[in-house]
Design brief:
With 302 residues, this protein is of the alpha/beta class. The radius of gyration is 29 Å and the shape is elongated. The protein is 44% helix and 23% strand.
Length: 302
């Protein structure tokens, strides 16, 4: 601990530029601060400060030490805060956002179970099919699907989904099953405009990437409307695997062109506060991650 006290005294003097001001900041006395600095210089075998009657300046060795000392003290403070915070029971109001269908089917049940486990926490959920700013909207945790842009947010991967082309068995009985992506041009395509800007669907087979432009027979502005039309046997649509997982498992829909999958899309939980996050945030991230990992096969509809 003496070494940390010496570093704290050195940083205070370096930042304040005076022993008296450093002593006030540390709640100590100038002689005590002087003794700590003298001890540090003796142990290191280097003069760190140049003292005059008017001010204190850093020597070259002192300038080199200052940045490292500030980092070491910051790391110590964060470690102590993390340990102290980890002992606190989650409490307060938690604000979570996620895409609409994912939020309804996966996040909402997890959130209810979390509130059952931690009665001192209340929560609100904002389910939107657009990314919202955590800071601007006062949100604590966001679930994102897809590759993440560079940002200062802390991300934890909790699963993955994939894009699937689907149709009802009745539709395929009447119109046949497309054997290759290009055959979709001969089918009634239902296009969810809320998800993609243009009716261009990507396919991959081996090293070949194909971007197929389609002429939709029906364009709708929600993903659920597109899925409902496919369930009714009206045509072919494309969705994220978790959105049609139950319908595929129950045989209401059939996956098409399975050998032409694009890369999986990661799912992350994001928050802004790093290791200093409140107990309610850290606990929810851990709680949700464990439960979403359990849903891995269902999320990928396999």
């Amino acid at each position: 601990m003496d070494r940390f006290r010496e570093l704290a005294a050195f940083v205070a003097v370096a930042e304040e530029g005076a022993f008296n001001a450093a002593a006030r900041r540390l709640g100590s006395s100038p002689p005590a601060v002087t003794r700590l600095i003298t001890g540090l210089e003796a142990r290191l075998g280097a003069r760190l400060l140049t003292r005059t009657t008017r001010k204190v300046t850093l020597t070259e060795a002192g300038q080199r030490l200052r940045e490292d000392a500030q980092r070491i003290l910051a790391d110590l403070e964060e470690a102590e805060s993390t340990v102290a915070g980890s002992q606190a029971a989650p409490s307060g109001h938690l604000r979570v956002t996620a895409p609409v269908l994912f939020g309804q089917r996966f996040v909402a049940p997890v959130l209810r179970a979390f509130l059952d486990a931690y009665p001192a926490v209340t929560a609100s959920a904002l389910f939107l099919d657009r990314n919202v700013s955590l800071l601007d909207e006062g949100l604590d945790v966001a679930l994102r699907i897809g590759d993440l842009p560079d940002s200062s947010l802390i991300a934890r991967r909790v699963g993955a989904v994939r894009r699937v082309v689907v149709a009802a068995p009745d539709y395929l009985k009447r119109h046949g099953t497309p054997a290759a992506p290009a055959a979709l041009r001969d089918h009634r395509v239902i296009f969810p405009a809320s998800v993609d800007d243009a009716p261009v669907w990507g396919f991959v087979k081996g090293n070949d990437q194909q971007n197929l432009r389609l002429a939709p027979a029906l364009t709708v502005n929600t993903m659920q409307a597109s899925i409902d039309a496919a369930l009714e046997g009206w045509g072919v649509t494309r969705a994220l695997s978790y959105q049609v997982a139950d319908a595929l498992a129950e045989g209401q829909l059939v996956e098409l062109l399975a050998g032409h999958d694009e890369a999986e899309m990661p799912i992350h939980l994001l928050h802004a506060e790093g290791r200093r996050a409140a107990a309610k945030i850290r606990s929810f991230i851990d709680f949700a991650a464990e439960r979403l990992h359990r849903e891995g096969d269902r999320l990928l509809a396999r």
